[in-house]
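Sorry to interrupt, but I need a hand with the structure work. Could you write out one complete protein record for me, on any chain you like? Could you add the entry underneath, on a fresh line?
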Amino acid sequence: MLAIAVAGPARAQSTGIAACDDFLQKYDSCVTSKLPEAQRATYKAQLDQTRKMWVDMAKSPSAKSTMEGTCKQTMDAIKTSLQSFGCSF
């Protein structure tokens, strides 16, 4: 059981920005647990694309300094659309 708990978070690459990682974790949890199976693939693809973009951005010191605000804005924009599925952030 411990191996599963350790393997789960390691699979999701960290951005190094707490606000971004928090959003990505909440988004993933929402998609996995609340969305209808038929819609999960689309939302998962968006999540993976966002994570990759943010991980790449975090490699640049100039972009990294603005990322917390960017991630918070993204969360505010997306959480409204996910509330209809019963997700809360």
In short: The CA atoms of residues 36 and 85 lie 9 Å apart. The first helix runs from residue 2 to 11.
